[in-house]
Amino acid sequence: MPENDPRLVKIFYEVQSGLPRQGPGNRDSTLRALGLCTNLPSEPAVLDVGCGPGMQTMALAQATGGRIIAVDNCDEYLAQLRQRLEAASGSERVEVRQADMTTMSFADESFDLIWSEGAAYVMGVKRALAAWRPLLKKGGYLAFSELVWLDLDPPEEVARFFGREYPAMKRVDANVALIRDAGYEPRGDFTLPEEAWWDDYYAPLEKKLPALRDKYENDEQALSVIAMTEAEIRMRRDFGASYGYQFFVAQRE
Ligand SMILES: C[S@@+](CC[C@H](N)C(=O)[O-])C[C@H]1O[C@@H](n2cnc3c(N)ncnc32)[C@H](O)[C@@H]1O
Fold first, then answer.
1. Quick one: which of 66, 72, 207, 243 could link to 44 by a disulfide (CB 3.0–4.6 Å)?
2. In a 10 Å sphere around its CB, with 0-12 CB exposed, 13-18 middle and 19+ buried, how is residue 237 labelled?
3. What is the atom index within ligand 1 of the atom nearest the CA of 52?
4. Residues 200-209: pLDDT tens digits?
5. What is this structure's pTM?
């Protein structure tokens, strides 16, 4: 996402607004990762970091009997989550909190489970692993999903794209090594299925783009944000075998 120019950021949010999810993911994958947390108490204390519009928050509320604190710094996504909660069972156990994940403060050993779908990259996986470990009770779990290289030698075009857009992207084994080095035991990982990219994310995102192109037809800055989004989606179509979203589950030792 464009980080420095406030107008580009505003357009980025306009492009991304109103989607069911803000990144790849689906309910089956959330539940599969939850299933790797084999030793959770029946009512776990859960922190969902970078919850966005909260599809996974809802799944966790329904699948666990626990209390969930869902944290994001974006008002609009949190409003979407609040709306979802109005209609749902288990919602009284979810607290929605606007906070910056880099400065959020919780007492040590507050949580049985820390969840973060597609948001650890904000801090970087290594920093996130270090920052979140003390917040977990001993034996507590961390589940996060992260963009990874699946191909040892990706084609040049896709290597160049992510070299620019997400230079910190690593292979699965390098992420597992970070998990171990940070004092967790890896409990499993899996690649999200292709539909997790499309059903709630790229398909509705792609649908929005023609109207935005019309709206901003004379606005080069806005068109550059739209073109970047189109390029990202095209990468998925053309080079999806080279990279993926990996769910990692780890346990604090
Ligand atoms: C790729 S989205 C994933 C959202 C959600 N977990 C999902 O899968 O739909 C990343 C999320 O991190 C949030 N985020 C970015 N920077 C943040 C920060 N500094 N503190 C808290 N949340 C942040 C964004 O607002 C966004 O909702």
1. 66
2. exposed
3. 27
4. 999 999 999 9
5. 0.96
